Please model this.
Amino acid sequence: MSWRNVIYKVFVVALAVLPIGVAAGENTLSSPSGRLKLVVDVTGEGQPCYSLSLDGNAVIERSLLGLQGKQGDFTTGFSMGEVATASHDGTWEPVWGEYATVRDHYNELAVTFVQPDDGGLTMTVRFRLFDDGLGFRYELPEQEPVNYLTLMDEATEFNLAADNTLYCMPGDYDTDEYLYATTPLSQVAGALAGYRGRHSESQAIDRLTVQTPLMMKSPDDGVYVNIHEAALVDYPAMSLDVDTASLGLSAHLTPDRNGVAAYLQLPFNTPWRTVVVADNACDILASQLIYNLNEPCKIEDTSWIKPQKFVGVWWEMFIGKQRTWAYSDYYKAKPGITDYTKLTPNGRHAANTENVKRYIDFAAENGIDGVLVEGWNQGWEDWASYVKNRQFLFDKPYPDFDVDGLQQYAAERGVRLIMHHETGANAADYERQLDRAFQFMVDHGYNSVKTGYVGAIIPRSEHHSSQWMVNHFLHVVKRAADYRIMVDSHEAVRPTGLCRTYPNWLAQESARGGEFESMGGNPPEHTTILPFTRLMGGPMDYTPGLFETRLSYYGEGKTGQALTTLARQLALYLTMPSPLQMACDLPENYRRFADAFQFIKDVPVDWSDSRYLEAEPGDYITVARRDKHSDDWYVGGITDENARTAEVDFSFLPEGVDYVATIYADGKDAHYIDNPQSYSITTKKKINSKTRLKQYIAPGGGFAMRLVPKK
Ligand code: NOJ
Ligand code: CA
Model:
């Protein structure tokens, strides 16, 4: 055990001892460094409230706390009862991630609020103050007369001290597949006006609401703040209502269609509300606060959980090659299929045995772990249906998909097939089929599944981010663990760090991913914002690796292009860390650019250390990471639509060791619209901890480096 581990090894000072940072007689708490300070009190009406400051400057002004239920009002009439304090300094080792070891270091204040009247209610708010921010949650004990609570609303406020710049998307109970608006809080109404009603299946929220993770920056660029939640279990996801006059944000829970937010059985602890705070954007990206607030891993034997790269029968359905998920065009004639054996093949079905073999061969040749196959199972002919109760069958392959033959073909080549379960958002029917579906996977050698929830949720009273669906997504992950299956969920509720507890939840989509490069494109700034927002809660299956960016390349009439240079696509493997990374393009495109593809073959998906070197939301990110299984380091950088020169300071390298660097960079004439495929690959023979390098990045571009210690 290293000295660092010895010093950090779990060190808990509980209750009686006054921990460092808690002032006697006051309800205040300091972070371990002393820079963040929390004050907790009650208003004249007995409303619990808190405020937060950094170096003496307010970050969150006095803001209300509380919960409102049908059986009890936990927002007012309180006085402060018992105040318990604790400190913790320990480390834990994630199964996979950006760091081999994570430090969990905080001071804690648990304030119990009591209503003094007869039949009064009790509620504890537990605050944890880390050097990089605050987490707090409500703890409701079972009490007379309330042993369950029909929760209607949460009173939590985050009143900002300044007119911060927001990187935000509109509130929506069903999708987070939006681009971000960058706007002062006071102007957010105008900035989000054009977004309304963008998603046909989603219910637009008619209040001025934004989603979390919400990234913000103070007007003087001095303070970066991120608001989200941790450990979202048995509770609806939180969005934030915006009050532009008072600069206030307040919790907005996704209701079911009865207007109920949650049905809680007491005792109950809510998810943590998180406020990550830093005076440097890099520290927001490096923060592990949300993971620290999640429970330790609940899966005892994790040896079967494997970070991995994959290719897939996927992109060819997006690019206008007329390739289909469905086996036939039956839906054009008559919806409601009963006998799939009578379908007439359309000749364009991508998930056919021969085509899948091509991908398996390619994966085997290039050391890629997995092959995803979409459209292998019955149901795609009229799947986007809200008008019937069964769409997909998860144990019934189409006639041209030889599930047994492919199992053998893949196994012989050391490749794993990745299952696809598009549910069409029919979560109810998926639960009914789940055990059969997972058993079918196990019987056919699959150990990873990509799930999908496109469309409006069934049961028809629910939303993608409501309590019922939050429970559904976690149920699938837990049940998958029983079958030793890893999960990549698309269109699932935005993640809140639960992959610490259930590390078989390798990745999620839950944001506007690479697929949109075929539908108007993702402007370059999008991927400079995602790490500050969506990725705060967990890794994203963004599907990078797009080399052929022009859709006209495929003929057949599709126009438009991806908004990226080729070199930037390599950088995304570093700036968008995930234990599950797709190489999304077609094998033939990788063969055309085999020298650049070498980087995708080499880049790891699991890290022992990460250093954010430069970052600004919406502008640029430069990051260095160390491979978990070797001494190699990797450095990646991206910019927005503006060219920039990254300054790479290699002082993170161990002293006295020289590295050979392979650098994949934009060509001098590269441009994400006009000249995306201009790139260079160069070698630098001697990079060490004293090296400082200026690296040009083209508009919409990026660079990626591999550093191998010199023998
Ligand atoms: C949307 C997912 O994000 C995408 O990856 C998938 O191919 C389609 N749904 C079809 O399931
Ligand atoms: Ca999607």
In short: The pocket of 1-deoxynojirimycin (ligand 1) is lined by residues 314, 374, 422, 452, 454, 490, 509, 515 (CB under 6 Å). The domain at 296-461 is CATH 3.20.20.70 (TIM Barrel). The first strand starts at residue 11 and ends at 14. Confidence is low (pLDDT under 50) at residues 1-25, 197-201.
